Amino acid sequence: MLRIHFTAQDFARIRFAPRPAPLQELHAALTTAVAHHGGPLFAPWRGRVLRSLPAATEALADLVPAGRPPSFLDVLGDTMADGFEQIRATRPDLVRSELERVYGTVPAPRWIRGLHAGDETAWRTVHRAQRAAYETVLAPVWSVVQDLHREEFTRYALAVAEHGVAATLTGLAPGGRLHEGVWEWPDAAPARDVRLDGRGLVLLPTFHHPAGPLLQDAPSRPAVLTYPAGPGLPPTPERRVEALATVLGRTRLDALRLLAEPHTTTSLACALNVSNATASSHATALRSAGMATTTRTGRAVIHQRTALGTLIAGGGAP
């Protein structure tokens, strides 16, 4: 059981992370894949992830012997670059003590010994491994993770407004309760007591770790609770497409995605397999919403997506 002890000051310092943290989400995803969390529902995703990880990511496994990651890996950077900068800024004595903690008496690989000594080449190894893992595991679904985070942020805000902080916190922990300033999360392992002592708490949803909370408890900093949220399955690129199709309609969404490249009305109609009049109607609707532009070049009418349209479509063509 996880027991988090609040003071009155801590309740005033509870906040919800405004954006997902790429490195936290990546570490949650890799933990789920390697530790076989999520059961059979996660099996197809887990198999794809483990088969697709490039050799450069093997260094990350060296950092987590026996499933015990060093605490300096847990950061809340808004981007991968920001997150790595925060990791790299870790005090050398903390890097050494954490590596000694996770390895204990077990011999460490040579590059880990270099990291322990502050070798810059070893730090570049960490950076390459994290970047390679992100590009493989998270980059294809990052826009979906952002959408899910916004949905969870909204849900949390509404719950606090309607029911208060205490009821909202207990709702995040199945079977949990908040009693006399102690928030109990019954299924969390290993059992631990965390005293905030005025530091406050940051709530960060994860959409890749279904097995319970992950707690970052660094001295002199707010504790960060990463908790399972979302639909209960790993995000897929198709989820964003389905959501947009519900709003725009399937054909209009296809038109928006095709307009990543310039199209005449005729070429757009051919690509969509609709009449010129229907293609023109879709282009007009997208233009009215600020998602496309239409220009005339001689006798040709050219349609192309705007920056807003690219943002909404997620950046790519079909």
Note down, in words, how this protein is organized.
This protein has 2 domains: 2-228, no CATH class; 237-313, Orthogonal Bundle (Arc Repressor Mutant, subunit A), CATH 1.10.10.10. It is 51% helix and 15% strand. It contains 15 helices and 11 strands. The strands form 3 sheets. It has a 4-stranded mixed beta sheet, with helices on one face. A 4-stranded mixed beta sheet has the order 2-6-8-7. Strand 3 (177-179) and strand 4 form a beta hairpin. Helix 7 (110-116) crosses helix 8 and helix 9 (142-163) crosses helix 10. The radius of gyration is 23 Å and the shape is globular. The model has no long low-confidence stretch (mean pLDDT 87). Keywords: DNA-binding, Transcription, Transcription regulation.
